[in-house]
Amino acid sequence: MTLLLGEIGLDLTSKIILVTGGGSGIGLELSRQLVALGNSVIICGRDAGRLAEAGNLTGAQAIAGDVTIAEDQERILSEIEAQHGRLDLLINNAGIFLAYDFNTDPDTLQKIEREIAINGTAPLTLTRRALPLLAKSEQPGVLFIGSGIAFVASPGTPVYSGTKALIHHCAQTLRHQLRPLGVTVFEALPPVVDTDMAKALKSGNFKKMKPTDVVRDIISGLRRNQTEMLLGQSRQIKWMSRIAPAFLFRQFAKTEFH
Description:
Blueprint: E1 16-20, H1 25-36, E2 40-45, H2 48-58, E3 61-64, H3 70-84, E4 89-92, H4 108-134, E5 141-145, H5 160-178, E6 184-189, E7 201-202, H6 211-223, E8 228-230, H7 234-243, H8 245-253, E9 256-257
Parallel strand pairs: 1-2, 1-4, 2-3, 4-5, 5-6, 6-8
Antiparallel strand pairs: 7-9
């Protein structure tokens, strides 16, 4: 029987879980903790070597593929269907963080398209393609890994914060639209996380959260059916975006990238 939204949180044991961008950062830690709970975790990513290492480290199954390419999305889902017959939880984690000057960077046009494709378009198209496989689950779910930066424009990253705002809005609309299908849509919004992706960010205003703590809180939220998870300083960022948006913007404008 398919469980309806709000009845109960996810039972995170013996589940079939796909984690995009599972070769590093939050995705790697998600894979490690979810496998440890007794789930069958499949990770995908573009770097086959890194992905294989992550699979050996965590016990997850690795499938190399680029989630911005439709054929790769379909191949990954087909392999999961052939081997497992269903998908219980899709975790849209893959993402990139690009800081550059919109006017002077010679690669601005390519960076715009790449960041929107990976952070914005891919999670949505993969979710749509995964719906038939999720329908075979008794308790299907989709988790978007967003960011607290969805609530404030970040001047040093001309596109990144916009992609996270897009995912935040889409998570809300899909939560409403997919509810009649029994699919629970979750969104986790961490602050800056201490991963390789955020190494270039230098600011005394924001404390980086450890991936282990981020994933611990995400798993707790999934179990409690917390569909919007404001992690670490993200709760403060959301609150400040409502009462003092100009001040918050100025604080982000002070952030240096190098």
